[in-house]
Amino acid sequence: xxxxxxxxxxxxxxSTTGQLTQDDCYEVDVNRTKGKQSLSQLHLLPxxxxxxxxxxxxxxxxxxxxxxxxxxxxxxxxxxxxxxxxEKEDNSLVDSTGTPPLLTQVSLAPxxxxxxxxxxxxxxxxxxxxxxxxxxxxxxxxxSLLPTSVNYSVSSSDSLRIVSQGALLDDGLVPDQSKGDxxxxxxxxxxxxxxxxxxxxxEVHAQSPDGYRSNAIITPLVVxxxxxxxxxSDLVAPxxxxxxxxxxxLLLTVRANDPDGLSDVVRVVFNSYKPDSSASGSNPFVMYDxxxxxxxxxxxxxxxxxxxISLPASTQVxxxxxxxxxxxxxxxxxxxxxxxxxxxx
Length: 345
Ligand SMILES: [Ca+2]
Ligand SMILES: [Ca+2]
What we know:
five-stranded mixed β-sheet; 1 helix; Immunoglobulin-like; 1% helix
């Protein structure tokens, strides 16, 4: 039985002739099912690999043709498909002889990323350039003895722009855990501005060396912001002090923390207000968790922030108000702890 397959523009037809109108290469893709496929089920996909015209699911002897040959004007391709008996009466023209790999599972770790946990400076800014990283693991079943290729792409769900793509490997090398277990792994990274929140689409598919393509699995990767304000507690300070005609030194300590980690606390301060409620000219007073004796801090990095202040003998007597507050990398403030300090002559 002789089958004429004619490539014309973006369509393919059987048993007709015509002119090849462009040099583009196309891949004839047939989703394999049991039994045979008729040409009416063929469809064309633009091929990214130039120079090859491949017809899948036909017998291998006819599986590849050079594109340059196909692209000649007025040339049509004659394929003799040796499908058993030439006396077959039905329209089943193409026999499926291979098995596409099967993608059964794709997972991301993590699949949700809080971009407020990614810091590139002491303060989080909307224009910060962040590197988003996730590990993709795909489970692939293949009957082929030859290596299967597995690829991923990550695209923005808004613009559909691909931001990352590459191969998943089953080679036992990091990030893949075990060679040849059918679990293919890749670490995908891409960069976004901190304000570019939303959903990204991770698409994975596998392909056998002879061109059989698996199903695709699409998995969402969500990038969101979720900062938590810092906390402040455990103020240790005197409630009154007697000047006695000489300067007095006070030690003030307070504990600060943050649900996003102590490292998210970037500033602990207090503001001082005089007995007449006017603000001190030295506000804000910065407290330190640096372990330095000059600041009165016992231990660096323990979350207890300290400051030594000196009240000269000339200090105006009366009740002072101190307001303590912590700030995190998003410049979110904690609650305020108030100290009322009575300064006596
Ligand atoms: Ca925080
Ligand atoms: Ca400390």
